[in-house]
Each structure stands twice: as C-alpha cells, then as structure tokens.
Amino acid sequence: MDNVTASTIVITGASDGIGAAASRILRAALPDARLVLVGRNPVKTAAIAAETDATYHVADYSRLDEVRSLAAELRQLGRIDVLANNAGSMFDGPIRTADGFELTWQVNQLAPYLLTNLLLPTLLESRASVVATSSMASAFLARFNPDDPETQRGFSPARAYGNSKLGNVLFTRELHARYHHRGLNTVAFHPGVIATNFGTETSSVIHYGYQTAIARMFHPAPDGGMNLAYFIAGTPGIHWQSGRYYNDRRRPGIQKRAGRDPELATRVFEDTAHALGVTWE
Fold this sequence. Notes:
By secondary structure, this protein is α/β, with parallel strands linked by helices. It has 9 helices and 9 strands. It has helices at about 15-30, 40-50, 65-75, 105-125, 135-140, 155-180, 205-210, 220-235, 260-275; strands at about 10, 35-40, 55-60, 80-85, 130-135, 185-190, 195, 220, 245. Strands 3-2-1-4-5-6-9 form a 7-stranded parallel beta sheet, sandwiched between helices. Helix 4 runs parallel beside helix 6 (about 155-180). The longest helix is centred in the middle third of the chain and has 24 residues, at about 105-125. The two termini are about 20 Å apart. InterPro entries: KR_dom, NAD(P)-bd_dom_sf, SDR_fam. Keywords: Oxidoreductase. This is Short-chain dehydrogenase.
C-alpha cells in the first residue's frame, strides 16, 4: 500500500471476536483509513461500525446470493487496498445449504473465494492485499481429500473446519501464483487460540473448550485482533511475504505437505471455480 493511512480496508467477520478487535486497533492506529466492516449480525455490526467510525454491510455467508450482493455493494467503493477475509466458524454437520454445499466449506472457503473473485478487477486495479484468517487447524485437524473437499465422508466438525482452513491456505498460495505479478499480494495466518464466541454453533469438543473454564487459558480477542491488524497494515515484502502462511507469532507456520503442494492448490482453485460457476481473469 502506497499510503496505508488513507487506505480502504474491508474486514469481513467484523461484528465480533478478532474482526471487531482489529477494527478498533486499526482505527486507533490509522485514523485516516476508510474502514468498511462486514458482518452477519446487523445489530452487532452496526455497533462496531459506529464505535470505529466505519461504514458497514451485512451478509450471511450461508447464502451465496448475499455474497454476490455484498460484492456489488463493495465494488461501489472504487478501490480496495486490503480485503481481509476473516469471517468463518465451525458447525455441526454435514449440513447442506440452500446453494447445495456443505455449510462449513461454504462459509469458510467458498464464500470468501467467491467474494474475492467478484472483486478481482477492483483488487488488481488497487494493487491490493488479500488477507486470510486461517488456522493451525489447517495442519493439525485437516485430513484433506480433493475428491471430497466438503468432507461429506467421515464428517466431523473439527475435520471439516481443518479442511476449510487448509482451503484458505491453498487459495492464498494460488492467488499469489496467478496474480502477484500483477500487483496482488496474498497472505494467510493463524491468529492464535483466542477466547471468543467461536464454536458456539457446534457440539464438538472444541465447543466445550471455548465455552468452559479451559477458555481461560486462551488469549483474549485483542491478541488475535493485533495479528489481523498486523497483516492488514503491514507492507508486503517487508512485514510479510506474499503467498505465505504465518503462525500466531508472525513467523512461517507449520503446514502438512498438502498445504505446500502447488498442484493441489491449482486443482482446488479450479475445482472451486467450476463448482461456483465462475471464471478468473
């Protein structure tokens, strides 16, 4: 970003948790930035927007028509210097959405993929950064089968979540491979194990951890927000390298072989485009 203080920054999943925390941090650090927040809950999103002097949009990622409407609204901004694909959660399942996809895969992978695709001309013109909130679950919980990316077979909330977060890493790598030479920068990161409302929509053991005394050992939401804000405000090539995945200490993160496989990244990218019926420049 040539002038980070006056940049247009879009943050999804901004109504709560690390998205809300990052919004507060960025407003304090970059008072001239144009913050644009996206959330599923209109009341919470409006409250954070008012607190941070931001504009906001409401979209439910379980409905891809709302993602398409969101993209149309965001294109009216004219330029986008940073798109932070931060929205995501864990769900019981498998649950089939109205769009015909498994819910976890749709919310965590398909929706940000579609939003980025629909905003690509604006992102390229702006020489933007695309920041993905992934997770160490991409290495430790994922058991990814490219023939079953939605985890329909052998479903568990944790495995489906890990696979979707691996999808974020692969998407980051492939976007870099295709568009970095045109000025686009991409990065994925693990925010840390953060005490938020994450996991409330699943009955898995992870839900238990987040909703009991175990959560007292987790980092507070502002810690994860600091990491998100760091990658949003950081300068590619100086603070982080495009196409990489980082851990919560902002160092290159551990990945399984699948997360480093360029052929798998290309396959998942193209299979997802086909499933959504979209094309890329």
